[in-house]
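Running log. JK asked me to keep both predictions on one page so they can be read side by side. First protein, sequence followed by its tokens:
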Amino acid sequence: MTVQWGRCTNFKTCKDAKQRQPIPIPVGSAFVCPECGGALQHEGADVPNEVPAAASAAVPVATPATAPVARAKRPSAALVVAVAALIVAVAVPLVLLTTGFAGISTWGKLHSAAAPEPNSAQNIILRMAGSNTIGDALVPALAEDFLKAQGATNVRIVPGANPQEKIVQGVLPGDGFPSAIEIAAHGSATAFTALAEKSCDIGMASRRIKPDEAAKLMPMGDMTSPGNEHILGLDGIAVIVNASNPLSELTKDEIKRIFTGGVGDWSQVGAGHGAITIYARDDKSGTFDSFKSMVLAGMPLAGSARRFEDSNALSDAVTGDPNGIGFIGLPFVHNAKAVAVSEKGAGALKPTRLTVATEDYALSRRLYLYTPATARNKFTRMFVEFALSKQGQDVVAANGFVAQNVELESPAVAEEAPDEYKQLIRNAERLSLDFRFQAGKAEQDNKALADLDRVVSLIADRGSAGGRILLFGFADSTGAPEVNQALSLNRARLIADQLIQRGIKPAVVRGFGSELPVASNDTDEGREKNRRVEIWMKRISIAAATPAEAGQSQE
């Protein structure tokens, strides 16, 4: 065995560097420090001549003729290599057990970051941990464009130690070595443990933070406030089957009974015959957490379910199984078939860009970035601002998720819609968002606050001062009808006031109480979806419309 010799220059934290000892590395292995994972400097290159210069080259195992001399200067290369290998073999598992970044030690992260270019240094400027759904492809793509927006060159994605880890690196202006963004996408739950351990700067989650997780992170601020919680985009959890399956829609109750084992054959839901095979994400997944909350309603997943950490692998499994069924984020449907989903009191909808953008689809969800209220790392705030900008949202859309850039749509109108509603939206287009509110309150949620500015930008681009804007408020069915009617109107008026403050006066403001539910009022999630304000824009000027269409709004 031959070795090459190097020195660690990480004098701040590495004990091998502080001891200034030459380190033997087997030829062919990554030329990094086994203690700290940092790139080594070849022995003899700008290093005090404490060791013969020959040590900088590959050193063969000592021969009998040279052995006595070699022993007087240092242990044999073979012995040193053996000892070094033993230290690494013992130290690395110990570090993996005692320190962690979503199960990855600092040594492991730096090693995986350095492995593609073992002889070059790089500066870790941002660390992200959490959801596989958004960390698989979306966040790496955002990181690439973010670095390019900062003027970085040679931007590329470097594979990490496993498929759930990536490093995005590029050389920032004025730097002579790469700057890197680390991404560890092991599931939404790991976002909050990594934030608590201060081993990441930004947590990625495909579900909202839980109360107990928020409580642990209180030293960083209120994680449900706009300063900590940032809505990255929207997604629909698609229920997928094999493309050959004749099934076109399922109720939420049928989906629940399938995934909890109550329905075991396709004939029980009118889709031919055959034993149903269930595919599901793993327990750390935010997709599973969302599905568990929205569909399983406290019941356990069937024990026969086959579990996956990787979204693409789950989709591929269903694609290859005529009897398979699974649930997955919208960008991962691939060659499977997504079925329409209905629930009590609302019609069946497929997960499309519009139904997810308005959050009318029964299994729509938000994607989140979580940060400390006051981040010491300047790149934390810069990255979040970039991700929420129009440029960042274009990247969200390009990766198969639903961006928050506002568009105009022409959806079909439900037959059961109130006559006044139908009349008012004649010759109008719906904006691709709804404003939503907290339970029993006329207070907007975090997404609604950001959406107001997006709406203003769209209206400004269209050259309208608000004379074509229609606002329709809705409530859940909890409480007396007259209370719900008043609450729905108050919500619409609140949005109108917010727009007026931004220079836009809506033409029509109406409240329709608990009419037109988009979800079941029997669940918390359904009631939350039903508390909303829709926003429409007339194709023609209000002045040219009929008196009924132009209705004098603030009533």
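And the second, directly underneath as requested:
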Amino acid sequence: MRRSVRRLLASLLVLPLTVAGCTVGPSDRPPLAVYGAPTTRSPATTTLPPTSAPTGPGGPGRDVEPIEWTDCFGDVPDTGPGGASFVVECASVEVPLRYESDPTSTFQLEVARAAPSGQDPAAPVLVVVSGSPGQNGRTRVAAVAESLPESIRKQYAVVTLDVRGTGESQPARCIDARLTQTLIDLPPDPSEGDAADRLVEIARALTFTCTDEVGPALSYLDTTASADDLDNLRAALGTPTLTFLGSGAGATLGAVYADRYPARVGRMVLDGPSDPMASPSEVATARGPLLNAALDAFGGACPDFPGGCPLGDDPVSAVSDLLTSLDELPRTSSQGLLVDAGTVLLALADGLGDVPGWPELATALGAATRQDVQPLADLIVEQNHLDSDDNLFNGRIVYGCNDAAQRLPPAEAATAAGALPDDDIFGRYLLGTVSLCSSWPAPEHPLGRVSAAGAAPMLVLGSVQDPTLPYDGVEALAGQLDPAVLVSWQSGQHGAYPASSCVGDIVDGYLLDGSMPNNGILCPP
């Protein structure tokens, strides 16, 4: 690690990175116009043609009892963080634990619906799955609805759900405080010292603990089974097709659904999906240069943050020095979290794709350079929901391992990391995270090529410099999906909708009246 950190950014390629700040939902963060101002360019559009679709591998579609909405209790707010109020209701949908062999073993899929007061009860439904598994489940339905443009909220009732293994839907809560700490301070470079041996121990502990805590259900918590759950939800909602908005892992879920149930695809928007054919190690090595470039852009933007740059005159060098100092002398936060170089890399890997969050990230890093690691620990807790039952490490580990056929031993991760350029500390760190699945059971449904042949046209969105889920993967997925129309944004922000007004115009037109853009539009910064 030390040789990597000391060379960090001394030899970084200085790549142009045009990014624009925007969040999914109201935010009090300052606009960062330097990364690209909103545009109002109207794209060329056509009207969706009628389509017919064959049966996919999931079957013709499911037939279940109609959903019964009731009042929500306890932990489901009816007001978003920006103050928008909704009529919020909750429901449960019974789904099989294992579709192929034991459909009689079931659990309750927990869902919620948010609608503006006075909306027609027969209004169409937009199912939204955004972020990592569990990140925006049923308890976040008001916040998710509030994040959408008012025109979308007026036309659609918004539905969110706890995908299986998260929230209250067969929860897989196996990442306890001890494992959480190990994931926060992972070795920064698996090729140095005893890092590979430590990763072996962590991988075994993750596998043993999750297998013991969750039991046989552990293997059935994956994106393919969640796609089948989505069709049960669609049937329960009483709609012949699913209208769907997914981002990140939610977008990948939407692609798998479209492949399994092409005849059931309505209007579908997939924002920043990953390529289901790419191995985790391929994604890790692809992200490294993108994160390096994003860090360079972050450093260049820092002097313009409100109040100036908390990292001084040379922000990138300050980050490099921080990595070195915390590698040599970790510090402990008030929560008892050990903060070291791996913690900094985790915060950067999660935060550099969130451009509106850069000032907060800079503040946390700046405090850490002054030996106050509390803001950085607080940021990690916020990013990963560590202060709630919905610790996002659970979904990331369980879905990440169950969706991937690759099992990369730490020794092989160390070899691959050692072959990377010295300046690519992100690629080295991320290869180490891939090895966390090395002891995991073989997957029931590893992801692979999707086609959705015959499905209705759908939108696939991607930011061309996204350091969270690389644009190459978005392009690859769009190429696999027969009915996909690709819309790109010249940005490094993870998530193009509704961050870009150009992309927003396209998506809103598609969701509201079926207007389909020309394939290959590139929206400006």
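Observation for JK regarding the second prediction: The radius of gyration is 22 Å.
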